[in-house]
Task: structure prediction
Amino acid sequence: MKRFTLSVITLVVALLVITACAQNQATPTTAPTEQTGAVTEQPAPTPVPTKQEQPAAEGSLLEVVKQRGKLICGANANLPGFGYLDQEGNYAGFDIDFCRALAAAIFDDPDAVEFRPLTAKERFTAVQTGEVDVLIRNTTWTLTRDASVGMDFGVVTFYDGQGIMVRKEDNITTLEDLQGAAICVTTGTTTELNLADQMRARGIEYTPVVFETADNTFGAYEEGRCDAVTTDKSGLVSRKSLLQDPEAHVILDATLSKEPLGPAVLQGDPIWHDVVMWTVFATIQAEEFGITSENVDDFLNSEDPGIRRFLGLEGELGENLGLTNDFAYRVIKNVGNYGEIYDRNLGPGTPFELPRGLNDLWTRGGLLYSPPFR
Amino acid sequence: MATVPVTEHTRPPFWRDERVLTVVAQVVFLVVVVLVFTYLYNNVQAGLRARGLTGGYGFLQQRAGFDIGESLIPYTADDSYGRAFVVGILNTLKVSLVGVLSATLLGLLSGIARLSPNWLLRTLVSAYIEIIRNTPLLVQLFFWYMAVMLKFPRVRQAVELPGPIYLSNRGIAIPWLRPEAGFPVWIGFVVAGIVIGLIVAKWRTNYEERTGQSGYPIVAALVTWVMFAIVGWFIAPGTPATVAKPELNGLNFQGGTRMTPEFAALFMGLVVYTGAFIAEIVRGGILAVSKGQREAAKALGLNDVQMMRYIILPQAMRIIIPPLTSQYLNLTKNSSLAVFIGYPDLFFVAGTVLNQTGKSLEVISLVMASYLSFSLLTSLFMNWYNQRVKLVER
Result:
C-alpha cells in the first residue's frame, strides 16, 4: 500500500513538472531569443543575425567579425586556380583572393582570414549554421539558393558556363555523340541538375555516375569509369591541368548552362551583404579607373572627384557601409584590382591561360559593371 | 525531532528514506530529460525562424530534377524528391539484403575453416580475417573500387568470358532473360515450384526424423522445383523468355543485365569485411560447444559434416545469433559509406536532396527514421529467430 501511495505521489509530481514545462513552451519563445541575443553580444564564433532585428550595425555579422579580429571564409581546397593549397600549403586562387580582399577591407590585413575547406554538399549548411561568415567557393547564383536555401547573393565574380570534357580518342564532338554514355558529375552542384535538363531536352540517354568530391569525380573519369565529365568550364580547364596526360582530353564547345559564380552570405543581414558586395565592386571599379596595387598611391593625389571618393579621400562612402572610408584603397593596395586578381590566378602565365571573355569590363565588351561609388 | 520517541520502527526522515530517495531521483531524472528536450526543440525552432527557413515535408512532392545512376524502380529527373528517396531506400535494401546473405555464408565457411585441421586452409583464412578485420572499411571500399573494379579494361577492350560475360570498368555485363509473352505464366509455375518444394522438404524432414532413414529433403525440394520450372516452360504459351546477350553498342553495353562497378565494389567490400567478423563469431560459437558433444558425436559414428550439421552448429547457433544480429545491423549502416564510391544509396540520395532543397533538418530526420526502421526490423526478425533456436528449458 505504501508503495502504491509513493507511486501516485511520483506520478503527480512528474505531471506537475511536465505541465510546468509545457507552459514554458507555450509562452512565446522570448526566452530562447534572449539567450541567443546574449550570445551575440560576446565575440562568439556562431553569430545569429536575426531577420526581425533592426538593420543596425550592432546586430550584423560585420560587428561579430570585427570583434573576432578575423574573417572566416568558406572556400574550396581542390580547385586549382580558384581555391587550392599551393606548394607552401597556403590557400591560393581566384576565390581565395576575394576572401583576402574582404579581410583587407575590414581589417586592412589580407591575412586576417581563416579558411574552411568545404565540399559542394557541405557549403550551404556551413553558411546556414554560421560556421563561415561568407562562402566564396565557385558557387552558382540561382533563385532556389537565393530564396529557399537561405543564401543571399548579389554580385558575380566570375561568369562561367557548364562544359563537358571527353577523351580525344573517342571522337566525341557534340552532345549528341554522348548517346548511352556514362557521365561523371559531382553531387550537390547545379551541374548535376543542368546535365539532367539538357540531356532530357535533347533526348539523350545517359548514366550519371555521381561522386561526393571533385577529386573522386575526376579520378573515376581518368580511370575510364565515364566517357565524359562535366562541371563549370573554368573547373574543367583547371582540372584538366591535373590529369596525367592533359593533351589526351578535350573540352567540348557546347555550353550547357549559365553559371554565374559569386560570394554568398546568410540571408537577412543586409549590412554584411553590402560589405561583401561592395568589396567586390571595389575591385571592378578600380580596374575601370586603372588603379592597381602598384600605382594606387599615385592616385592619392588625384584631382578626379570620382577617384577621390572611391579611395576615401572625400565623402563618407566607407563609413556608411560600416567600414572605414579608405576600404577600397585597402583592398586595392593589399590584393589588387579585379584584373590583377584574374591574371594572377587564371590569366596568361598560369597553366590555365583563360581568356577574359565575359569576365572583362563592360567597356571592353565583358559583363563586369560596378554601380557608381557615390 | 527530539520529541519523537526513538523506537526500532520509526521511519527515518524522508531525506534519508531510501524509498523516497529513489523516487525523487527518478523524478529529477525525468525532469532533466524533459527540460533538455524542450530546450533543444525550442532551440531548433528559434534557429529556423532566425534564418527565415520554413520547416515541413512538403518539398517531397516537388520535382527532383536530378538523375540517379541505378534504380530498382523506374525513375527520371521528372519524378519527385519523395520518389528519389524511395530509390535510395531500395538501393540500400538491395545491397544490404544481398550483402547480409553473402556475408553470412562467407563468415560461416571461414569460421569453420579457421578451425580446420588443414594447416594451409587454416592459415590462409586466419590471414584473411586478421587483415580485413584490422583495416578500416572505407579504405577497403576504395581498394575494391579504385584498385579492382576501375582497373578492368575500358569498354571497347572488355574482357570476354564464355557466356558471354564482359568485364570492363563499366561493370560486369552478363546475359539475362528477356521476358516474352508467356513469361507471367512461367513465373507462376516457378513460384509454385518454390512453395511446393518447401512443402516437400518439410515432409521429407519429418520422414527423416520419424524413421531415422535419410529423406534427402534438399534434393527432393530442388528436384520438385526444377520439374515445375521445366513443365511450366512448355505449358506457357509461346516461349516464356529468351536470353538477351550483352552487346557493345556505341559507348556502352546494351541488352543483358549489368552490375555497376559501384555496386560491385560496395558489395564486395561489405561482404568481405562483415564476413571476417562473422567468421570470428562463428568460431567463438563453435568453440563454446563443450568437447563432450564432439566426442559423443564421434562415438556415435557421425562423420565430420554430420557432426557439424546435427550436433555442433545447432548448439553454436544459440551463441552466434545475438552478436550476428549486430553484424547485420553494422552491414546495413556501413552501406552508407557508398557515398564515397558513388553508389546511390539512401544516404547518398538524401545528401543530394538536402543540397538541392536546403531542408537539412527534414532530410536528416527522414534518413535517421529510415535507418532506424531497417535496424529495428532486422532486430525484430533476429530476435524471433533467436527465440526459435534457443535452448528450450524445462
About this structure: The longest strand of chain B covers residues 165-168. Strands of chain B lie at 159-161, 165-168, 171-174, 176-179, 241-244, 247-249, 252-254, 257-259. The mean pLDDT of chain B is 87.
